[in-house]
From TrEMBL:
<keyword id="KW-0732">Signal</keyword>
<dbReference type="InterPro" id="IPR011055">
    <property type="entry name" value="Dup_hybrid_motif"/>
</dbReference>
<protein>
    <submittedName>
        <fullName>Murein DD-endopeptidase MepM/ murein hydrolase activator NlpD</fullName>
    </submittedName>
</protein>
<keyword id="KW-0378">Hydrolase</keyword>
<dbReference type="InterPro" id="IPR016047">
    <property type="entry name" value="M23ase_b-sheet_dom"/>
</dbReference>
<dbReference type="InterPro" id="IPR050570">
    <property type="entry name" value="Cell_wall_metabolism_enzyme"/>
</dbReference>
<feature type="domain" description="M23ase beta-sheet core">
    <location>
        <begin position="358"/>
        <end position="453"/>
    </location>
</feature>
<dbReference type="GO" id="GO:0004222">
    <property type="term" value="F:metalloendopeptidase activity"/>
</dbReference>
<dbReference type="Pfam" id="PF01551">
    <property type="entry name" value="Peptidase_M23"/>
</dbReference>
Length: 486
């Protein structure tokens, strides 16, 4: 026989008709009340006894609240905190926790206590990392000094960088990263601990401090110089089509100017024509790409093809556009040799000093004293010096039997036998010889006969031959071997 927790008494016997007795113990009233759920969920089992019991509880609570309330028109009295004075309000605001939108600055500043002791001077950082950018016309050493590098360290850094590349060859916009170390006192500049920059497209440099000296480390960057070739249809606009193909704006302008020497871009081109450009390109192993000058300009019109290569002819200072056969041709009208206004034209006129009618064999151009005078065509200086009424006079010989003369100069900038390029300064405006004021007397001759400079158009042709022609053809073959888009 044993007793169970539910107060049931069982008697076990050997027969099947065992005796089982149950003796329940009555529970107190408080215990039964505690078992009821006085606040059941009114959203569940609607209409049940438990639901009605919960509704009665809710009604009783609402009635009690209404009975004990002072009324809807009578607010409850309450005491507010005493307003703080200005210093105390600032201190409490600094230590309070409030949204930043309400003007709090929690954590930005804290009020000092008795453990805080003011310092005579604020401690310095052990090192400072900063950067400086080279501007147009800026000097490398001057940029370092401006950033806070000491004069001695700036001179040493400039000397080490100059051993690898000329300082004036570093392009503007180059970023220089600097690390300045700890200094012994505040009266001296911080020492230069580290400097790094991209000195050239194919060279990066790092300067490190070793004791009292700086050591340079060079990192050579591999560069692929395979040109970029772009092809496509002219479409509605040659400029827009070439730009959409990936050519820079300056390259497209050079391409159109090159084609303009052989055809009329606005009249002769059609939408079905195909353009062909080869541009100098450099691709560094670090991922940067830099596009250069236009090397090849081509246009395929089906019945006609123009192929021009940028090439420097022997004896020329600048490169020009040669066709695939090695011939360069330039057409056009000459510009003015000086910036000014024409005061006397070509033809018969009354001489301002001699006082009689006389043939004026050139143009008089008034300009400020000392203004530069430019050669109107490529050529060679035939004579340069004093020439009677012309004063200081320069005569240039050009191709095709042409010659040009420039008189009344204040100073001559060339010497006899010297080759000159179109646009090169050959002298300066003056009033030497028979002259009434500072101006240029400009004459042109064809086969020794005076002609009106304004009516002259020119055609210049240059042809390559010998080894120059063979080198040119090798260059053309190399450019034609470049695959488009690679």
């Amino acid at each position: 026989m044993f007793l169970k927790a539910d107060r049931e008494l069982e008697l076990a016997g050997g027969g099947a008709g065992g005796l089982r007795l149950r003796s329940p113990v009555p529970r107190p009233l408080a215990g039964r009340a505690a078992g009821f759920d006085w606040t059941p969920d009114l959203g569940a089992r609607i209409g049940s006894r438990a639901w009605w019991r919960g509704l009665a509880t809710c009604t009783a609570l609402c009635a009690a609240t209404w009975t004990l309330s002072p009324g809807l028109d009578r607010p409850l009295p309450g005491d507010g905190p005493v307003p703080l004075a200005a210093p105390a309000a600032d201190q409490a605001r600094a230590q309070a926790i409030a949204p930043l939108a309400l003007g709090a600055d929690t954590g930005h500043r804290m009020a000092a206590n008795d453990l805080v002791r003011p310092l005579a001077t604020a401690p310095e950082r052990p090192s400072i990392e900063l950067g400086v950018t080279l501007g147009d016309g800026d000097g490398f050493q001057r940029a370092l000094t401006r950033a806070g590098v000491g004069r001695r360290d700036a001179e040493a850094a400039a000397r080490l960088v100059a051993e690898a590349t000329p300082l004036d060859a570093i392009p503007s916009g180059t970023r220089i990263a600097l690390t300045l170390g700890r200094r012994p006192t505040r009266t001296v500049a911080r020492p230069l601990d580290r400097l790094s920059l991209r000195a050239r497209f194919d060279l990066a440099m790092t300067l490190r401090r070793a004791g009292d000296t700086l050591i340079a480390e060079r990192q050579v960057i591999a560069v692929d110089r395979t040109p970029l070739r772009l092809q496509g249809l002219v479409g509605a606009s040659l400029y827009r089509s070439a730009r959409a193909a990936g050519a820079p704006a300056g390259v497209v302008e050079a391409y159109i100017k090159a084609l303009a020497t052989r055809l009329s871009v606005g009249r002769d081109l059609g939408s079905a024509d195909r353009f062909d450009l080869v541009i100098a390109r450099e691709r560094a192993a670090t991922g940067e790409t830099r596009l250069g000058d236009l090397l090849y300009a081509g246009i395929d019109q089906g019945r006609r093809a123009v192929r021009l290569v940028h090439w420097t002819a022997p004896g020329d200072a600048e490169a020009g556009w040669f066709d695939a056969a090695g011939q360069a041709e330039r057409r056009g009208f000459m510009g003015m040799p000086v910036a000014g206004r024409v005061t006397s034209s070509f033809g018969m006129r009354m001489h301002p000093l001699l006082g009689f009618l006389r043939m004026h064999k050139g143009l008089d151009i008034a300009a400020p004293y000392g203004a530069p005078i430019y050669a109107v065509l490529d050529g060679r200086v035939a004579s340069a010096g004093r020439n009677a009424g012309y004063g200081n006079f320069v005569k240039l010989g050009h191709a095709g039997g042409l010659a040009s003369g420039y008189g009344h100069m204040s100073r001559i900038a060339v010497r006899p036998g010297m080759p000159v390029r179109q646009g090169q300064v050959i002298g300066y405006i003056g009033s030497t010889g028979l002259s009434t004021g500072p101006h240029l007397h400009w004459e042109m001759w064809r086969n020794g006969q005076s002609i009106n400079p304004r009516s002259l158009s020119f055609i210049q042709v240059a042809r390559l031959s010998g080894e120059d022609l063979r080198a040119f053809r090798r260059q053309v073959a190399a450019l034609m071997a470049v695959r488009p888009g690679e």
